[in-house]
Amino acid sequence: MFDKLRAENRTELMKFIDNELIHLFVYPENMGLLSFLYNDHCIMLSPLTVEGDFDNKHLECCNQDGRNWGKELFEHYLKKSTPVTEL
Q1: Tens digit of pLDDT per residue, the chain (87 long)?
Q2: What number of helices (H) and strands (E) belong to the chain?
């Protein structure tokens, strides 16, 4: 997905990379997720279907247990991820 973004949306991607409030990472394996958002207030997951297709369903957790689980999941993926600092 990152290669596609880099090839088709280079200018927009550079805006994210240049923004010091955004940290972009690439995970080398299949996560089974379209997106995973985590902050101090909530987590939100957008899983892919079993076939790997987009699904408009989302999972959002905003209680303490959900945030703790989201933090652990985030740290799990972050360990193998590579930061994107330039194209």
Answers
A1: 788 888 888 888 899 889 989 888 888 988 888 888 888 899 998 888 888 888 888 889 999 998 999 889 889 999 999 999 888
A2: 3, 5
pTM: 0.70
Q: Do 27 and 81 touch, CB atoms closer than 8 A? A: yes
Tell me the β-bridge partners of 45.
36, 59
Please answer whether residues 46 and 60 qualify as being in contact, where contact means their C-beta atoms are separated by less than 8 angstroms: no
- The sign of the CA dihedral 80, 31, 74, 76 is negative
Greatest alpha-carbon pair distance for the chain in Å reads 39
- The size of the chain, in residues, is 87
